[in-house]
Amino acid sequence: MHELKSPTNTAMIAGRIQADGPADYAVVNAIQKQYLLAPLSAFGKPYTPPAGVIDPQIDMKTPPMDQVSRTRGETFLNRLATLMASNLYVLHFDKGGLPPVNAFRSLTMYDAASFLAANPINRYNIAGWVPLKYNPDGSLDAYIQHDSPGQRKESNWLPAPEGPFSVTLRMYWPKEPVLDGSWKPPAIQKVSGNAKETASH
Q1: Which of 10, 16, 30, 77 is deepest in the core (most CB within 10 A)?
Q2: Domain covering 64-191, topology
């Protein structure tokens, strides 16, 4: 057992297991069911966690995205508010410019309430295991929009909901260029025109 010190009396741990597609889900779910969080005094003993208590001062009804939109940061929030389904976006990575990681990376779509967005191809993120099509020059485009960009580009399509959305890029076990800031993620670019023709480089 390895002790991790927390500088405060409140701590959060986020743990994720890499799954290279649906074939891995059953194994991953079995591993997740074995996880147990207990106080040190109950380590190795049967433990029943106490019932949770919700602070009545915390707004549990308003979607998180709506709450965030009321905070400061006008530039960021105004841009987020314009991400509507009628718009088309492309995230372009130059050749050799994908997020440098030792483990895996993912680009995940969320709706206005910060939930995964239902879509016709059941794709909620673009992860390292997803078979993508690269451009002739070795670069990569991810198409972020509500409607399909067409069969030729659908392998690189991250479906967006009808309405505001947000996209999160996660990098697990990042390499030094991420940690020292020398690698920076490219900006998502808004494009115009027909989804099947213009959303490309």
Answers
A1: 77
A2: Jelly Rolls (2.60.120)
* DSSP per residue, 76-100: HHHHHHT--TTSEEEEEE-TT-S--
Check whether 191 has a pLDDT greater than 80: yes
Helix, strand or coil for residue 75? helix
- Residues 141 and 84: their CA atoms lie apart, in Å, by 20
Mean pLDDT of the chain: 83
| CB-based contact 105:98 (threshold 8 Å) | yes
Please tell me which residue, 10 or 86, carries the higher pLDDT value: 10
Q: What token pair was written down for 111?
A: 């709706």
What count of Cα atoms within 13 Å lies in the side-chain half-sphere of residue 7? 0
Question: Tell me, what DSSP letter sits at residue 156?
Answer: G
Note the pLDDT tens digit of each residue in 13-65.
778 888 888 899 999 999 999 888 788 888 888 888 888 788 888 888 888 77
| Contact between residue 107 and residue 91 where contact means Cβ atoms under 8 Å apart | yes
Rounded to whole angstroms, the Cα distance separating 50 from 46 reads 13
Among 114, 78, 89, 104, CA closest to 169: 104
Q: Distance between CA atoms of 17 and 5, rounded to whole angstroms?
A: 23
Residue 174 contacts residue 136 (beta carbons within 8 Å): no
Query: Are 139 and 94 a contacting pair, CB within 8 Å?
Result: yes
